[in-house]
Amino acid sequence: MTKGLYWRLSGFYLFYYATVGIFLPYWGLYLESLAFTPSDIGELLALLVVGKIIAPYLWGWIADHKGNRMGAIRLAGLLSVLVFTGALFATSYFTLAIVMLVFGFFWSASLPQFEAVTLNHLEGRVHDYTRVRLWGSIGFIITVIVLGEVLERYGVQYLPWIAFVMIVGIWLTSLIAPNDVSDEDSFGHEPIVNVLKSPTVIAMLLAFFLMQVSHGAYYSFYTLYLEKYEYSRSVIGQLWALGVIAEVGLFLVMLTMLKYFSLKMLLLTSLNCAAIRWFLIAYFPEYLSIIIFAQLLHAATFGIHHAVAIQLIHRFFQGRHQGRGQALYSSLSFGAGGALGALLSGYIWEGIGPAEVFLFAAATSLLGSFIVYKWMQNDV
C-alpha cells in the first residue's frame, strides 16, 4: 500500500471516530444540560444509533448493486452534514428525536461501506487493516482529551457546533478518499441466505449483537456514572482516552496475536474481559486504580472484538457480499445492539439504579461468551 493511499484511507477514520469521541462520552452531558431525564437521554441516544439497524444494510445493498460504493459514502456524508444543522438549534425532545434519528440513518451508512473499500484496497492483506484503523482510535483519543478540558472550562453549550465541524470533516475526507476497486470474484458466490444459515455465522452475529448491547451502558451512561462519584470532566475525558490508547496498543500487536490464537479464542477472551470490566465499574467506581484497570480492558472489549469481527466478516462474506457483510455486522451490533443497550440502560438507571446498569452489561457479555463457546466451530 502506497503512502498516498494509506493517508487517504486513514483520514476518513480519523474524522469519523473523532465524531464518535464527541457523541459517546459527552452527548449525554449535553442532553442532561437541556434538563432531560435519564430515560429521555437513553431514548435519544438510542435514536442516534437506531439508524444503524437499517441504514448500513440498505446502503450496502445499493452500493453492491450499483457498483459505486464511494458515491454512496459521499452522499451519506453530505446528507449527514445537512441534517445535523438541526441539532445546532433544537432544544425540544421531539425536534432532537427527529434530528438524531435521521442524522443517525445517514451517519451510520458510510462506515461499513468504507470498511469494505479499505479491505478491497488491501488486496487480501486484511491483517494490515489495523494499521489504517488505528487512526480512528487516534482521532477519538485527541477528541476526548481536548473536549474534557474544554467542557470543564466552558461548559457543554458549544458541543453541537464542535460536532458539526467534525461531521463536515467526514464528508470532506470522503471526497479525497480513493474510489473502490473492483473485485474479480464479485459474482458466482452462493446466495447470502446460505451463508446466514451456518451455525457459526449465527453464533458470531449473536455475539457481536450482545457485546454491543453491553457497551450500550458504557457509551450512554459511563460519563454520567462517573460524575455521580465526583470525577471531573477532564479526568473522565482522560479515562475515555486511556481506553482507546489501550485499543491502539492492541491494534499494533494484533497481527502477532492472530498467528498464535484462533479467532474463536480471541472472541471468547474479549467477551469474558467485557464481563469483568462491567462488573468492576459497577462495584468499585470510587477506586480510581480499579477504574483505570477497567479502562485498559477496552483493548480486549473493543480492540480484540472489532479486529476479530472484521476478520470473520471478511472470511464468511466474500465477493459481492462483502459490503452487505460489513453492513450486517454494523446493523446488528452497533445498530440494534447499541440501540437496545442504550434504551434498556436508561430504564434500568431510572428504575433500579446506576450500578445495576453495568451489572446488566456484564450478564449480557457472559451470555455472548456462552453462545460462542457452545455453537461456534473450534477451527475458526
Summarize the structure.
The protein has 380 residues and is mostly helical. It has helices at 3-33, 38-66, 69-84, 93-121, 129-154, 159-176, 192-196, 199-228, 233-260, 263-283, 288-296, 298-316, 322-351, 354-375.
Task: List the main descriptive attributes of the protein structure presented here.
380 residues; mainly alpha; Growth Hormone, Chain: A
Map the helices and strands.
Layout: H1 3-33, H2 38-66, H3 69-84, H4 93-121, H5 129-154, H6 159-176, H7 192-196, H8 199-228, H9 233-260, H10 263-283, H11 288-296, H12 298-316, H13 322-351, H14 354-375
What does this structure look like?
It is a single chain. The chain is mainly alpha-helical. The chain has one domain: Growth Hormone, Chain: A (Up-down Bundle). 82% of the residues lie in helices and 0% in strands. The longest helix is centred in the N-terminal third of the chain and has 31 residues, at 3-33. It is globular. It starts with a helix and ends in a 5-residue tail after the last helix.
